[in-house]
Amino acid sequence: MRFAANVSELDLADYQRAVRLVLRHPLITATYPDERALVRVRRFAAELRRDLTEAFGYRLELHGSTARLVRTADQLTPDRPATTRNGRPFDRQRYAYLALCLATLGRAGVQTTVSELADAVSADANRIGGLGLDPDSGADRRAFVDAVTWLEDRRVLQLADGSSASWVSDPTAGEALYDIARDALVALFHPPRVLQHVDTVHALLERSATTSGNAERRAAAQVARRAVVELPIVYFGDVDAAVANHLRGTALPVDLQRLTGLRVERRAEGVLLVDTLGFSVERFPGTGSVAQAAVLLAVALAERAMDPDGRRVRRLPAPDPRERQAALVAAADAGLPATARISIDDLDQVADTDDAGGTDDTETESARLPFVTESFLREAVAAILQQYGSAFGAPWHADPDRLRVEAVELLTRFGAVTPVPGGVLVRPLIGRYRGTVAQVRQRTLF
After folding, report:
1. Domain residue spans in the chain?
2. Per-residue model confidence as pLDDT tens digits over 307-319
3. Per-residue pLDDT tens for 159-196?
4. Of 13, 158, 195, 394, whose CB has the highest number of CB atoms within 10 Å?
5. d(CA 314, CA 445)
6. Does domain 92-188 sit in CATH 1.10.357?
């Protein structure tokens, strides 16, 4: 037994719950995500530190009343954004306000008000071209408070009096007083490198060069385990050959089940972690109109891609994961403020993107996936709305294109499809839903 070696069988379930807890919530405070979370982590702190470092290359830090899991990223993942309280993804403005809030709070005392914080952030934001923060603008106030409530939800800011919502409505009359949780603030804002020294976001993904075969194998095994616990599904064709070998090996399922209590399911195309205990933040199939439409669309896509009696489906090569990463890096680098960079002669050079992952060109060219057109997606969503009309509210019937877009985005997040110009490529996960008979909860339409 390599992991949980000092945990008794009686305590194993509690230990696995603690592992799932820190993997799902990298920042844990005395009250976030609940009052019992920090106690569970502290109970197994020594074993968690050892196992999380050995299994995933993560680092568990305890700061007073805060636990912080410092994770290692292998690639940029744009499909897991910060969100507002009502579930809307952060845009650039909200991310910028969040970063400026963290910088401002680092210089603050033990308390602050929302208006004081807004004034300080506004002074910094107004010096940044294209950003700015005008407290008299309702849109700017709402965006700023979305960043503040993100910190409030994680107990970095603890509301002592008032309400940020009242300040949004009327900044001259409304106010909110916050206690600043210094431990949580320090734990949350802990960049691995001085950001002014970073010439490209790819530098944040760099690894120290390994010097031995054993170290390379250990690093590949950690990448494989990270991928399985962080991604909904891992396809063999999307990772390096060394990582794929570990995904195909017998040790990985045993290790992850011992650590998390969850079973690894393996198929010819890849592996996934079967979430039977609510480990994932988002689950599929899930609840809500978009999730219901997505699973019904998955059924239609499976029938279209695999029906032997239907029209022949055109097959296209799967996009190279390295090209997608290069595009994401370029998009992120386009926003780097050139005037704020500090050149350092001995700064490590950015790793060649050809080593960032993926398979060789020959294998990529041979991985051809069924292509389903945009027109088929529109027709399928229209048929879903017609067949299950009363299960979807009036706004979805009025805007079926929005339902289609959001359902495809959900399927993309879970690795079921890959958007390409003119449609989507159907990935192997869709095959799980072929022949599925869906039961949709009915509702009153009007």
Report:
1. 12-72, 92-188, 213-274, 283-318+367-446
2. 666 667 889 998 8
3. 999 999 999 999 888 899 999 999 999 888 776 677 77
4. 158
5. 38
6. no
